[in-house]
Amino acid sequence: MDVVSTQNKKIHPHKFTLWVGIGSIIMMFAALTSAYIVKGSLPGWTTVKIPTLFYYSTAVILISSVTMQAALKAFKERNMQLYRRLMTVTAILGVVFIVLQFVGFKQLWATGIRFTGSGAGQFLYIIFGLHALHVLGGIVALLVIFFRAYSAKIRNYNPVPVEVMSTYWHFVDVLWIYLFIFFLIKI
After folding, report:
1. CA angle 143, 159, 130 (to 5 degrees)
2. Where are the alpha helices (DSSP H) in 41-159?
3. Would you tell me how many other CB atoms lie within 10 Å of the CB of residue 88?
4. Which of 9, 14, 26, 160 has its CA 20 to 30 A from that of 41?
5. Structural contact between residues 62 and 173, judged by C-beta atoms closer than 8 angstroms
6. Sorting pLDDT into bands at 50, 70 and 90, what band is 104?
7. 3-state DSSP call for residue 52?
8. Are 48 and 105 in contact (CB under 8 A)?
9. Torsion angle of alpha carbons 68, 72, 78, 79, nearest 10°?
């Protein structure tokens, strides 16, 4: 009986790996936002206006978090039809987020904000661009789960991959909110 109760308290290796990865991502973005604060106090620092599309992308990523959570719930209830639809919507919203970010960056570029010089624009490109890469990685994982959901060959009701995906997706959502608010306050 002790073996069973000890076994149930262990974290799944995929979840553990995810949390280690999340920890390293947090440290990276903490370092980048700290560097922004330090550099922002130096002479010659220039600020930028955040593109309006970033507000829309914030709404999109928040909605995608809701659909991802609903998809996880549907999967656990074995409502596969609803699960598939919600995963489809989540993947589409993830792509819309990336497209809005790309167009927002194009707007920044059109206003003359480049990688050269000293200012907030360079940090926006780096920090928001790194976040977009993490979201893109999440979209790839979403697509893998999406195709598995529609596969006739796979009938595995193991919730771990969906739980891992859900946790990661919520993480990139929360990370975006942090970064967006950080830049709203600091710019």
Report:
1. 40
2. 53-76, 80-110, 120-150
3. 16
4. 26
5. yes
6. very high
7. coil
8. no
9. -20
The C-alpha angle with vertex 71 and arms to 70 and 73, in degrees rounded to 5, equals 65
pLDDT in tens, 2-45: 555 555 678 889 899 999 999 999 999 999 999 988 888 888 78
Distance in angstroms (rounded) separating the CA atoms of residues 32 and 30: 5
Give percent helix, percent strand, percent coil of the chain, each to the nearest 5.
80, 0, 20
Task: Give residue-wise pLDDT tens across range 144-156.
Answer: 888 887 776 666 7
In a 3-state reduction of DSSP, which class is residue 117?
A: coil
Query: Residue 44, by phi and psi: left (phi above 0), alpha (psi -120 to 50) or beta?
Result: left
Tens digits of per-residue pLDDT, 134-146?
Answer: 988 998 998 888 8
End-to-end Cα spacing for the chain: 58
Contact 168, 22 (CB under 8 A): yes
- pLDDT, tens digit, 9 for 90 and up, residues 56-71: 999 999 999 999 999 9
